[in-house]
Amino acid sequence: MGDPVLVEVVRGARVESRHAGAFVVMDADGMTVHSGGAIDAPVFPRSAIKVIQALPLVESGAADRFGLDDEALALACASHGGEARHVAVAARMLAAVGRDESCLECGSHWPSHAGAGRALAVSGAEPSALHNNCSGKHAGFVCLACGLDEEPRGYISPAHRVQREVKATLEGVTGFALAEGSHGIDGCSIPAYAIPLRALAQGFARIGTGTGLAPGRAAAARRLRKAVAAHPFMVAGSERFDTTVMSGLGEQAFVKVGAEGVFCAALPTVGLGIAVKCGDGATRAAEVAIAALLLRFLPGAEATLEPFVRPVLRNWNGLEVGALCPTEILSS
Amino acid sequence: MGDPVLVEVVRGARVESRHAGAFVVMDADGMTVHSGGAIDAPVFPRSAIKVIQALPLVESGAADRFGLDDEALALACASHGGEARHVAVAARMLAAVGRDESCLECGSHWPSHAGAGRALAVSGAEPSALHNNCSGKHAGFVCLACGLDEEPRGYISPAHRVQREVKATLEGVTGFALAEGSHGIDGCSIPAYAIPLRALAQGFARIGTGTGLAPGRAAAARRLRKAVAAHPFMVAGSERFDTTVMSGLGEQAFVKVGAEGVFCAALPTVGLGIAVKCGDGATRAAEVAIAALLLRFLPGAEATLEPFVRPVLRNWNGLEVGALCPTEILSS
Q: What is the pLDDT of residues B153-176, one digit of tens each?
């Protein structure tokens, strides 16, 4: 636990809880611009790298072959709330390859957006794999398999062509070699590879700038970033950090949360990439940390970011009872 | 952040996240049996002390005067899921003093039990203050005010007789002097006082044994513990740690969660009290820590506790992907 405290949770005049973690801001050539904590220890980036996992869908030509539009490409990069529009786009992606939700191997859960869950219950329906927050990524995997003229079944296995393409892309973008058999299993059942924050941040600087990527991959990254910037609702949903921040920042920032306190971001206009891991896995602290880092490195983004840099905590009567506060290491 | 790591979150062969914190096990005379981390720093116990906050309701004679039964007394100590049975008992408590939910000053929120929230939506109703997880405690405060022949309105203010009684009881049980004006505001709008873990643990040893309490207070504590042991559903609800553990352990343990990673427990049969604070506020880690400590100090409780000491993490397909693991300091 040598990592510095990144965020303090304040109630009244007292620090109630503390979140330690690591972060790094890199350029695409590998120069470290700012960092704190253990940035060379491999961590599971979880869903923060969905944009990298979606690259083969575009690079392979599958997205064009099946006519996937920008909403679909944004959903392929998403951890969405299972709201009706997300579900409709996931279904449309599968229909484009003549498939349906029975092909999805991510499992089912109630929509993570509570209101969408209640609306689904009121409609009398049960959740399906389309409501899984990863259904867009998985629909993209099914489309990729079809584009490669492979049988989609089993696409979650590390041995399947889809996951081999994804793994090679991850290695190519981050420059980090992923040892065979070293992976965990993600919430949606695909392999989860651990990668140091330093390699993730440099990879996202490449995603943002194209520097160090082959032309086809650089174009695919640009297309995915632009798709998400055009449809930020698709990448998360109502009342969600990623959607709100990207709605405000447009193409200045691609920002993606991962489970267990991870964030990755690409900042094309300033040529930087960022990776954050809150050591205890808390999303609330990772949000504050990435907001503080975005504010520091994106001139003119104050209006969008300031509510997220020091979010006020209110209780059930709407009274202000505290705040989440970034520590000096993030901003100084 | 000098506190030791208490719980590791493991995915595959790798530690994905780590939770540091502090804990102490005490007897009622103030002897420290086991501890780790900063146990003398005041922390907000939040809802972990509801059983202490409910003592005046019984001690004052109000519970008897209004015929509150064991279900009601258990709900007065609860952070409940807003399930139908919880809501019915809270309404019954208010009816016993000729009041209704319009007297509650805790605010409204959708039931914290997701299934109860969906059921409420399907019924076409909106959540009220009765669904607030603290509604039983607040209904108890309204009953206490009526028992003291005070107007309940404003019972959440530190200046109201109800909160002055609660504060004096907290000081009496824990032996820790609460400075005027030093409090924060809790999620349900009552004052939140910070108290060191050492004082909380000794206080819970007293709650469990009666040692060091006046006879009337010792009897009130015993009555509340027995009410919760008889109706563990009331104190939390379906699929909840406190309810499951107390359903298994009966009167051997009174266990109560608080927000931001707090647990307090009274172990009457072995004469001990426990207090835990996960430094980052994570309930998942505080559950593992209290389960490991209960297992260590309660002979014969393995069947109930072992599933909670090293809970398996499963993904949306039901695959085992990892586990929460207590570190050696908790058990050795």
A: 999 999 999 999 999 999 999 999
**CATH number of the domain encompassing residue B72:** 3.40.710
> For residues B75 and A145, what is the distance between their CA atoms, to the nearest angstrom?
54
Contact predicate B84/B78, CB 8 Å: no
* Distance in Å, alpha carbon of A64 to nearest chain B alpha carbon: 31
Nearest to B3 by CA among B45, B35, B44: B35
DSSP string covering A67-124? T--HHHHHHHT------HHHHHHHHHHHHHTT--GGG--S-----SSHHHHHHHHHTT
CB pairs under 8 A between A and B: 151
A281 touches B16 (CB < 8 A): yes
CB pair distance less than 8 Å for B184 and A260: no
Q: Which chain A positions have a beta carbon within 8 Å of B322's beta carbon?
A: 184
More confident residue, B1 or A130: A130
Which helix (H) or strand (E) segment is B253 a member of?
Answer: none
Interface touch B184/A105, C-beta < 8 Å: no
Here the tokens at position B169 are 């009881």
Q: How many domains does chain B have?
A: 1
Residue B141 has pLDDT above 80, yes or no: yes
Asked whether this complex has an ipTM greater than 0.90, the answer is yes
> Residue A225's pLDDT is what?
98
Tokens of A219: 């174009």
Tell me which DSSP letter residue A238 carries.
T
Calculate the CA A86 to chain-centre distance. Answer: 16
What chain A residue is nearest to B7 in terms of C-alpha separation?
A280
pLDDT of residue B2: 87
- Contact yes or no for B54/B134 (Cβ under 8 A): no
Q: Is B51 exposed, middle or buried (0-12, 13-18, 19+ CB in 10 A)?
A: buried
Question: H or E element: which one contains B89?
Answer: helix B84-96
Tokens at residue B267, please? Answer: 């172990």
Closest partner residue to A9 among B121, B185, B281, by Cβ? B281
Residue range of the domain that includes A272: 5-330
Look at residue A182 and tell me whether its pLDDT is greater than 80.
no
3-state class of B321 per DSSP? strand
pLDDT of residue A331: 81
Contact residues, chain A, for B119 at CB < 8 Å? 121
Half-sphere exposure of B278 (CA within 13 A, CB side): 28
According to DSSP, the β-strands at B272-278 and B195-196 are unpaired
Chain B residues touching A122 at Cβ < 8 A: 121-122
Residue A282 corresponds to which tokens in the numbers above?
């808390």
Spatial contact of A298 and A309, defined as CB atoms under 8 Å apart? no
Phi, psi for B189 (deg, rounded to 5) = 85, 0
Closest partner residue to B1 among A20, A183, A322, by Cβ? A20
> Residues A56-74: what's their mean pLDDT?
98
